Amino acid sequence: MPELPEVETIRRRLDGLLSGGVVEGVEVLRPDILRETRPAALRALVGERLHGVRRMGKLLLVEIGDRFLVFHLKMTGRFSLLPNREPERHTHLIVRGRDRDGQPFFLNFTDPRRFGRVSLLATAGAEGRAPLNRLGPDALTVGRDVFIALIRSSRRRVKEILLDQARLAGVGNIYADEALHRSRIHPASPGSSLTGRRAARLHMAVGEVLREALERGGSSIRDYLDPCGEPGSFQDEHRVYGRTGEPCRTCATPVRRVTLGGRGTHFCPRCQPPPRRT
Ligand SMILES: [Zn+2]
């Protein structure tokens, strides 16, 4: 569930609190969350400096020494930053160390559904290797012309294009629905059917909704909390997502929910008329 605004909120928190610190140990409680990484490889991180935390799409990259510890939060992955060793239920990995002031920290990675993944990559050439090499341009910074081209070059339904991380990285179900409503585009419209102008409107809506959500600390649906236990509040601003049957905030028509490409999809049948059949 965490999408770009939630992962970026986590990134900012962790980057501010951990940059300049030192890693003293990595404890793997559930080795099956590791991808192409043996638990023993994580020992190389001990004694290394924490340079910072980056984000690519929905991936979080903790830069330690000359490596990235890469987290994919998937459905329910979450971090808690604590002053003591206190594994919670479903904590699968703990990074412990000292922050730049010498205070101990314990970073718990917790994931009840266990779809989350962790891998270790050398920073040199990391962009060329999985999972980083499977990502399209970042949804927060993608340029307008690039965005228009990636939408219009596919005949797939526009919502599925938005969700395809290899095309555009960072947007998930919530922000796809919200951006399509803001740009008055029906989620099942083929990308290739959109005019340049409508695709440009969608580009603007994607950027707008992501930035607004980021300002509100993301959306707390189900169990999203940032590493300090703070929820986001953007869920109160959703115009369609999770509002099935409630009045559209633009025209008061009840919001509809359909399943599209296996995903629950929310839209206003009046503001977002279905694509014309050709
Ligand atoms: Zn409406």
Characterization of the model:
It is built from 5 helices and 10 strands. It has 278 residues and is an alpha+beta fold. Strands 1-6-7-5 form a 4-stranded antiparallel sheet, with helices on one face. It has a 4-stranded antiparallel sheet with strand order 2-3-4-8, with helices on one face. Helix 1 packs across helix 5. The longest helix has 20 residues. It is elongated and about 60 Å long. It binds zinc ion (ZN). Zinc ion (ZN) binds next to loops.
Core attributes:
278 residues, alpha+beta, four-stranded antiparallel beta sheet, 5 helices, elongated, binds zinc ion
β-strand amount: 15-25%
Bound molecules: zinc ion
Overall average residue pLDDT:
95
Low-confidence stretches: none
Q: Treating each run of at least 4 consecutive H or I residues as one helix, how many helices?
A: 5
Topology, number of strands: 10
H and E order: HEEEEEEEEHHHHEE
CA radius of gyration is 20 Å
Work out the helicity level: 10-25%
Query: What profile does the largest beta sheet have?
Result: 4 strands, antiparallel
Main β-sheet, spatial strand arrangement: 1-6-7-5
Kindly, what is the distance between the CA atoms of the first and last residues, rounded to a whole number of angstroms?
Answer: 35 Å
Describe the global form: elongated
Structural class of the secondary structure composition? alpha+beta
